[in-house]
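Bump. Still looking for 1-acyl-sn-glycerol-3-phosphate acyltransferase C-alpha coordinates.
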Amino acid sequence: MISTTTAKMINRLPDKLVTYISKKIVARYLKKYANINIVGSENLKGIQTPTIFICNHLSNSDGLVLGKVLKEIDPTFVAGAKLSHDAVTSIGVNVVKTTNIKPNTADKEGLEKIIKLVKQGESLLIFPEGTRSRAGSMIEAKKGILLIARMTGAPIVPIGIYGTEKLLPINTEGDMRAESFNYADVHINIGKQFKFQKRAKEQDKSEYEDFTLKYMMYKIAELLPDDYRGVYK
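Sorry for the wait, here they are.
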Protein backbone atom coordinates (compact mmCIF):
# COMPACT_ATOMS: atom_id res chain seq x y z
CA MET A 1 0.00 0.00 0.00
CA ILE A 2 0.99 3.65 -0.16
CA SER A 3 3.02 5.14 2.68
CA THR A 4 1.45 6.80 5.71
CA THR A 5 3.07 10.12 4.75
CA THR A 6 1.55 10.03 1.26
CA ALA A 7 -1.84 9.01 2.65
CA LYS A 8 -1.82 11.90 5.14
CA MET A 9 -0.97 14.35 2.35
CA ILE A 10 -3.86 13.07 0.23
CA ASN A 11 -6.30 13.28 3.14
CA ARG A 12 -5.48 16.97 3.66
CA LEU A 13 -6.84 17.82 0.22
CA PRO A 14 -10.48 18.91 -0.48
CA ASP A 15 -12.95 16.04 -0.15
CA LYS A 16 -13.74 15.73 -3.86
CA LEU A 17 -10.07 15.59 -4.75
CA VAL A 18 -9.40 13.02 -2.00
CA THR A 19 -12.13 10.79 -3.41
CA TYR A 20 -10.87 11.20 -6.99
CA ILE A 21 -7.26 10.37 -6.11
CA SER A 22 -8.28 7.49 -3.82
CA LYS A 23 -10.36 5.92 -6.60
CA LYS A 24 -7.47 6.21 -9.03
CA ILE A 25 -5.07 4.55 -6.57
CA VAL A 26 -7.43 1.67 -5.77
CA ALA A 27 -8.36 1.12 -9.43
CA ARG A 28 -4.67 0.87 -10.30
CA TYR A 29 -4.02 -1.70 -7.57
CA LEU A 30 -7.03 -3.84 -8.51
CA LYS A 31 -6.20 -3.73 -12.22
CA LYS A 32 -2.61 -4.76 -11.55
CA TYR A 33 -3.09 -7.44 -8.90
CA ALA A 34 -6.66 -8.81 -8.99
CA ASN A 35 -8.04 -11.22 -11.57
CA ILE A 36 -11.73 -10.87 -10.68
CA ASN A 37 -14.17 -13.66 -11.62
CA ILE A 38 -17.90 -13.09 -11.12
CA VAL A 39 -20.65 -15.73 -10.99
CA GLY A 40 -24.35 -14.97 -10.53
CA SER A 41 -24.42 -11.42 -11.87
CA GLU A 42 -27.79 -12.27 -13.43
CA ASN A 43 -29.20 -12.39 -9.89
CA LEU A 44 -28.84 -8.61 -9.70
CA LYS A 45 -31.21 -7.98 -12.58
CA GLY A 46 -34.61 -6.76 -11.50
CA ILE A 47 -33.98 -7.13 -7.78
CA GLN A 48 -35.98 -5.14 -5.25
CA THR A 49 -34.11 -2.14 -3.86
CA PRO A 50 -33.09 -0.90 -1.43
CA THR A 51 -31.56 -4.22 -0.47
CA ILE A 52 -28.98 -5.48 2.02
CA PHE A 53 -25.98 -7.33 0.62
CA ILE A 54 -24.37 -9.71 3.10
CA CYS A 55 -20.93 -11.22 2.52
CA ASN A 56 -18.21 -13.17 4.29
CA HIS A 57 -15.11 -11.18 5.20
CA LEU A 58 -11.51 -12.21 4.49
CA SER A 59 -9.55 -9.04 3.74
CA ASN A 60 -9.54 -5.27 3.73
CA SER A 61 -9.71 -5.58 -0.05
CA ASP A 62 -13.21 -7.15 0.13
CA GLY A 63 -14.93 -3.78 0.12
CA LEU A 64 -12.77 -2.48 -2.72
CA VAL A 65 -13.55 -5.48 -4.92
CA LEU A 66 -17.26 -5.50 -4.06
CA GLY A 67 -17.51 -1.76 -4.69
CA LYS A 68 -16.25 -2.41 -8.21
CA VAL A 69 -18.57 -5.40 -8.77
CA LEU A 70 -21.66 -3.62 -7.41
CA LYS A 71 -20.93 -0.19 -8.90
CA GLU A 72 -24.30 0.04 -10.67
CA ILE A 73 -26.21 -0.35 -7.41
CA ASP A 74 -23.55 1.57 -5.45
CA PRO A 75 -24.42 0.35 -1.94
CA THR A 76 -23.31 2.04 1.27
CA PHE A 77 -20.86 -0.13 3.19
CA VAL A 78 -21.36 -0.54 6.93
CA ALA A 79 -17.79 -0.28 8.25
CA GLY A 80 -16.01 -0.28 11.58
CA ALA A 81 -15.09 3.23 12.66
CA LYS A 82 -11.37 2.42 13.05
CA LEU A 83 -10.87 2.09 9.29
CA SER A 84 -11.63 5.79 8.83
CA HIS A 85 -9.28 6.83 11.63
CA ASP A 86 -6.13 5.51 9.94
CA ALA A 87 -4.63 7.56 7.10
CA VAL A 88 -3.74 4.55 4.94
CA THR A 89 -6.91 2.47 5.36
CA SER A 90 -9.03 5.59 4.93
CA ILE A 91 -7.87 5.69 1.29
CA GLY A 92 -9.87 2.51 0.72
CA VAL A 93 -12.82 3.89 2.68
CA ASN A 94 -12.84 6.98 0.44
CA VAL A 95 -13.51 4.82 -2.62
CA VAL A 96 -16.90 3.53 -1.52
CA LYS A 97 -19.79 5.09 0.35
CA THR A 98 -19.57 4.11 4.00
CA THR A 99 -21.44 4.61 7.22
CA ASN A 100 -19.61 3.86 10.43
CA ILE A 101 -20.77 1.74 13.33
CA LYS A 102 -18.89 0.97 16.52
CA PRO A 103 -18.35 -2.80 16.73
CA ASN A 104 -19.44 -4.79 19.79
CA THR A 105 -21.40 -1.85 21.22
CA ALA A 106 -24.98 -0.62 21.29
CA ASP A 107 -24.24 2.15 18.79
CA LYS A 108 -27.67 3.77 18.72
CA GLU A 109 -26.53 6.75 16.68
CA GLY A 110 -24.83 4.55 14.08
CA LEU A 111 -27.86 2.29 13.84
CA GLU A 112 -30.26 5.19 13.41
CA LYS A 113 -28.13 6.54 10.57
CA ILE A 114 -28.14 3.14 8.85
CA ILE A 115 -31.92 2.83 9.05
CA LYS A 116 -32.35 6.38 7.76
CA LEU A 117 -30.16 5.59 4.75
CA VAL A 118 -32.30 2.59 3.79
CA LYS A 119 -35.50 4.62 4.17
CA GLN A 120 -33.97 7.15 1.78
CA GLY A 121 -33.47 4.38 -0.79
CA GLU A 122 -29.84 3.43 -0.12
CA SER A 123 -28.84 -0.22 -0.37
CA LEU A 124 -26.34 -1.52 2.18
CA LEU A 125 -23.46 -3.97 2.23
CA ILE A 126 -22.72 -5.62 5.56
CA PHE A 127 -20.13 -8.14 6.67
CA PRO A 128 -22.15 -10.01 9.36
CA GLU A 129 -19.04 -11.57 10.91
CA GLY A 130 -18.05 -8.09 12.03
CA THR A 131 -14.35 -8.61 11.37
CA ARG A 132 -12.04 -10.29 8.90
CA SER A 133 -11.58 -14.00 9.42
CA ARG A 134 -8.04 -14.81 10.50
CA ALA A 135 -8.83 -18.48 9.84
CA GLY A 136 -9.44 -17.88 6.14
CA SER A 137 -12.94 -19.34 6.46
CA MET A 138 -16.29 -18.22 7.88
CA ILE A 139 -16.54 -17.39 11.59
CA GLU A 140 -19.56 -16.83 13.82
CA ALA A 141 -21.70 -13.89 12.75
CA LYS A 142 -22.75 -11.08 15.07
CA LYS A 143 -26.43 -10.48 15.72
CA GLY A 144 -26.33 -6.86 14.56
CA ILE A 145 -27.40 -7.85 11.06
CA LEU A 146 -30.68 -9.21 12.48
CA LEU A 147 -31.57 -5.87 14.03
CA ILE A 148 -30.72 -3.94 10.87
CA ALA A 149 -32.66 -6.35 8.64
CA ARG A 150 -35.68 -6.31 10.95
CA MET A 151 -35.80 -2.53 11.38
CA THR A 152 -35.32 -1.74 7.68
CA GLY A 153 -37.44 -4.58 6.30
CA ALA A 154 -35.14 -4.68 3.27
CA PRO A 155 -34.68 -7.94 1.31
CA ILE A 156 -31.26 -9.58 1.37
CA VAL A 157 -28.75 -10.64 -1.28
CA PRO A 158 -26.01 -13.08 -0.17
CA ILE A 159 -22.52 -12.91 -1.67
CA GLY A 160 -19.63 -15.32 -1.30
CA ILE A 161 -16.10 -13.99 -1.80
CA TYR A 162 -12.75 -15.76 -1.76
CA GLY A 163 -9.25 -15.13 -3.02
CA THR A 164 -9.06 -11.68 -1.39
CA GLU A 165 -7.22 -13.25 1.55
CA LYS A 166 -4.39 -13.75 -0.97
CA LEU A 167 -4.88 -10.41 -2.73
CA LEU A 168 -4.42 -8.36 0.47
CA PRO A 169 -3.49 -10.74 3.32
CA ILE A 170 -4.16 -9.80 6.93
CA ASN A 171 -0.99 -8.68 8.71
CA THR A 172 -0.20 -11.24 11.42
CA GLU A 173 0.71 -8.49 13.89
CA GLY A 174 -2.53 -6.61 13.27
CA ASP A 175 -0.93 -3.63 11.53
CA MET A 176 -3.27 -2.83 8.64
CA ARG A 177 -0.85 -0.21 7.30
CA ALA A 178 1.72 -2.97 6.71
CA GLU A 179 -0.59 -5.00 4.47
CA SER A 180 0.38 -5.18 0.80
CA PHE A 181 -1.23 -6.36 -2.44
CA ASN A 182 -0.29 -9.61 -4.16
CA TYR A 183 -1.34 -11.13 -7.48
CA ALA A 184 -4.44 -13.27 -6.90
CA ASP A 185 -7.52 -14.78 -8.51
CA VAL A 186 -10.56 -13.33 -6.76
CA HIS A 187 -13.94 -15.02 -6.96
CA ILE A 188 -17.34 -13.39 -6.37
CA ASN A 189 -20.49 -15.53 -6.28
CA ILE A 190 -23.77 -13.59 -6.06
CA GLY A 191 -26.81 -15.43 -4.75
CA LYS A 192 -30.53 -14.86 -5.20
CA GLN A 193 -32.34 -12.19 -3.22
CA PHE A 194 -34.51 -13.45 -0.37
CA LYS A 195 -36.86 -11.95 2.19
CA PHE A 196 -35.90 -11.56 5.84
CA GLN A 197 -37.96 -13.94 7.95
CA LYS A 198 -40.05 -12.15 10.55
CA ARG A 199 -40.58 -13.59 14.01
CA ALA A 200 -43.94 -15.18 14.76
CA LYS A 201 -45.67 -14.01 17.95
CA GLU A 202 -45.43 -17.44 19.56
CA GLN A 203 -41.79 -17.95 18.56
CA ASP A 204 -39.10 -17.85 21.26
CA LYS A 205 -36.86 -14.82 20.68
CA SER A 206 -33.57 -16.58 21.29
CA GLU A 207 -34.44 -19.57 19.09
CA TYR A 208 -35.72 -17.27 16.36
CA GLU A 209 -32.54 -15.18 16.33
CA ASP A 210 -30.31 -18.25 16.32
CA PHE A 211 -32.24 -19.90 13.47
CA THR A 212 -32.51 -16.73 11.36
CA LEU A 213 -28.86 -15.79 11.73
CA LYS A 214 -27.73 -19.27 10.74
CA TYR A 215 -30.17 -19.29 7.82
CA MET A 216 -28.66 -16.05 6.49
CA MET A 217 -25.07 -17.22 6.96
CA TYR A 218 -25.73 -20.58 5.31
CA LYS A 219 -27.01 -18.62 2.30
CA ILE A 220 -23.51 -17.15 2.05
CA ALA A 221 -21.79 -20.48 2.75
CA GLU A 222 -23.65 -22.11 -0.15
CA LEU A 223 -21.84 -19.72 -2.48
CA LEU A 224 -18.36 -20.71 -1.28
CA PRO A 225 -16.08 -23.72 -1.76
CA ASP A 226 -16.22 -26.11 1.20
CA ASP A 227 -12.85 -24.99 2.59
CA TYR A 228 -14.17 -21.45 3.09
CA ARG A 229 -17.40 -22.34 4.88
CA GLY A 230 -15.83 -22.65 8.32
CA VAL A 231 -18.42 -22.85 11.10
CA TYR A 232 -21.20 -22.88 8.49
CA LYS A 233 -20.32 -26.16 6.77
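The chain has a mean pLDDT of 90.

Edit: fixed formatting.
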